[in-house]
Design brief:
- The chain is of the alpha+beta class and about 110 residues long.
- It is about 20% helix and about 45% strand.
- The strands form 2 sheets. Strands 1-2-6-5 form a 4-stranded antiparallel beta sheet. A two-stranded antiparallel sheet has the order 3-4.
- The protein is flat and about 50 Å long.
- About 20% of the residues are buried.
Length: about 110
């Protein structure tokens, strides 16, 4: 059995001066890869908010609709950021998907 080699940034996203890095992750999502990626990014941003002492509130509404053909689930999500007259910008520096668990890891960096 081949061992899975994880990128070093997953355990050490770094913090240097004004640059703050964090890692968000998400297991496979019912709504596909794009939803999985958005959840991982949001979790990375949440960690940056904690490190920078910024408040971020996430609200998610999930509803299920049934019909004879099957069931459809929808998810809506909003992110509210409150910063004391500051702008916080962040970008995705790297991402990696574990080939065994299919968990997506996203490295988010903010200046």
């Amino acid at each position: 059995m081949e061992t899975v080699k994880t990128p070093p940034w997953i355990l050490n996203p770094s913090r240097s001066g004004d640059v703050v890095g964090s890692v968000g992750s998400c297991r496979p999502h019912i709504n596909g890869f794009n939803a999985q990626r958005m959840v991982a990014i949001r979790r990375g941003l949440d960690e940056i908010a904690v490190l920078k002492k910024v408040t971020i509130s996430n609200v998610a509404l999930m509803g299920t609709v049934g019909s004879r053909a099957g069931t459809k689930t929808s998810l809506e999500s909003w992110s509210f950021q409150t910063v004391d007259k500051q702008t916080v910008t962040a970008f995705v520096k790297a991402s990696w998907k574990d080939p065994v668990t299919e968990e997506l890891f996203v490295w988010v960096v903010s200046k």
